[in-house]
């Protein structure tokens, strides 16, 4: 299943997805782009179970709301590191 959604902080999606994939042994992928001045994220859940898709979506929505209220764009790096650079 693939979903495209407008996001307040698309960079935080990278952080959250990396942590979620590690914790749940999933392979969720995402890309982000600016369309007409608004940040959109496309999420590919691949073969992720419905329960984990729901959990991912709920947590991501909560984090996006929190970041928007605080006016921040990144999650705490100690808790949500970025994935290693691909060579």
Give the total of beta strands: 3
Question: Could you say which structural class the secondary elements and strand pairing correspond to?
Answer: alpha+beta
Query: What is the radius of gyration computed over CA atoms, rounded to a whole number of angstroms?
Result: 13 Å
Could you tell me how far the N terminus lies from the C terminus, measured between alpha carbons in angstroms?
A: 28 Å
Strand order of the largest sheet: 1-3-2
| Poorly predicted ranges | none
| Element string (H = helix, E = strand) | EHEEH
Write down the overall geometry: globular
Oligomer: single chain
Number of helices: 2
Helix content: 40-55%
Can you offer a commentary on this structure?
- With 87 residues, the protein is of the alpha+beta class.
- Helices cover 41% and strands 22% of the residues.
- It has helices at 10-24, 50-70, and strands at residues 2-6, 29-35, 38-44.
- It has a three-stranded antiparallel beta sheet, with helices on one face.
- Helix 1 runs antiparallel to helix 2.
- 16% of the residues are buried.
- The mean pLDDT is 95.
């Amino acid at each position: 299943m693939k979903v495209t959604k407008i996001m307040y902080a698309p960079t935080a999606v990278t952080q959250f997805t990396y942590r979620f994939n590690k914790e749940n042994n999933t392979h969720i992928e995402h890309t982000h782009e600016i369309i007409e001045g608004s940040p959109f994220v496309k999420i590919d859940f691949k073969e992720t179970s419905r329960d984990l898709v729901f959990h991912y979506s709920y947590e991501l929505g909560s984090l996006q709301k929190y970041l928007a209220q605080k006016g921040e764009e990144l999650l705490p790096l100690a808790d949500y590191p970025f994935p290693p650079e691909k060579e």
